[in-house]
Amino acid sequence: MKQDVVPVQIRGILPAHNSCALFVGNEEKVFVISVEPQMGRVIADFLSAAPKERPLTHDLINRVFQGFGISVERVIITDLKNSTYFARLILQEKNEMHAERKIVELDARPSDCLALAVAQKRPIFVSAALFAQVEDMTQYLEKINETSGESSDE
Q: Which residues, 6 or more positions from 106, have their beta carbon under 8 angstroms from its beta carbon?
């Protein structure tokens, strides 16, 4: 893999009234992506492997992927423009008839990418240029963890 990406993971989730803060990063730096509250809950449920009464949209997508032999290869958070993050979902399809694999790269919302990556336990990356650009929010995550008395690290 090219060295122009940095491996990250979801380090914490902070629900709020009108949004949810996803703390994404590594030991070097953590930054925040604001998502809709329901997407924060979906990602939290995948992280905790919480049982669901019925499959939700991301569960359905994963089942469709499985049915067609498609898996999430990785996700990359690529850019930030006008306070909006952008991401790429990289999928891999293995064909039973041939020993070939097909890679497809799609533009997708970071929240959807993160949900699918967490659900399939696949790697999450951020472009090195974006990682250098974002503000480090590690101290805020640490303060939240201290206040709550528990770690939000996964």
A: 88, 89, 90, 91
